Amino acid sequence: MESYKSEFIDFMVESDVLKFGDFTLKSGRKSPFFMNAGAYVTGSQLKRLGEYYAKAIHDNYGDDFDVLFGPAYKGIPLAVVTAIAYSELYGKEVRYCSDRKEAKDHGADKGGFLGSSLKDGDRVVMIEDVTTSGKSM
């Protein structure tokens, strides 16, 4: 296992994000652990979180993607901090975007997305805190 992966697990425990016990997930599944990314509340925690996500994305995709997509709501800050970290660690400017739960109908930036718009042919990496059933997609 790459060292950043075991460091990330330790970081989740230290940050009180990863809990162990008997949990029923939103999907109805039972789990011996629960991750609450909403417990990352400081700038330094978010900086480190973005670095871990950026390293994992780089290991899996290299630079072979165009946009980081973070679904509303918890995916939004994840996409932002990961785009910043990716730029700092790997020197590639990466766009990010998120969906809106409610479409914006006023101002210059109307529609269902915030951040970068998606273009035909974009290669998208989706960033989410936890995915169990895929229903949030």
What does the average pLDDT come to? 89
Instruction: Specify the structural class.
Output: alpha/beta
Tally of helical segments:
3
- Distance between the first and last residues' Cα: 29 Å
How many domains make up the 3D coordinates? 1
CATH class: Alpha Beta
Strand content: 15-25%
Spatial sequence of strands, sheet with the most strands: 5-4-3-6
What sort of overall outline do the alpha carbons produce when their principal axes are compared? globular
The low-confidence runs, each spanning 5 or more residues with pLDDT under 50, are none
CATH architecture: 3-Layer(aba) Sandwich
How many strand segments?
6
SSE series: HEEHEHEEE
Main sheet summary: 4 strands, mixed
Identify the quaternary structure here.
single chain
Into which percent range does the helicity of residues fall?
25-40%
Can you tag this structure with a few keywords?
single chain; 137 residues; alpha/beta; Rossmann fold; 4-stranded mixed sheet; two-stranded antiparallel sheet; 34% helix; globular
Entry summary:
The protein is about 35% helix and about 25% strand. The chain has about 140 residues and is of the alpha/beta class. A four-stranded mixed beta sheet has the order 5-4-3-6, covered by helices on one side. Strands 1-2 form a two-stranded antiparallel sheet.
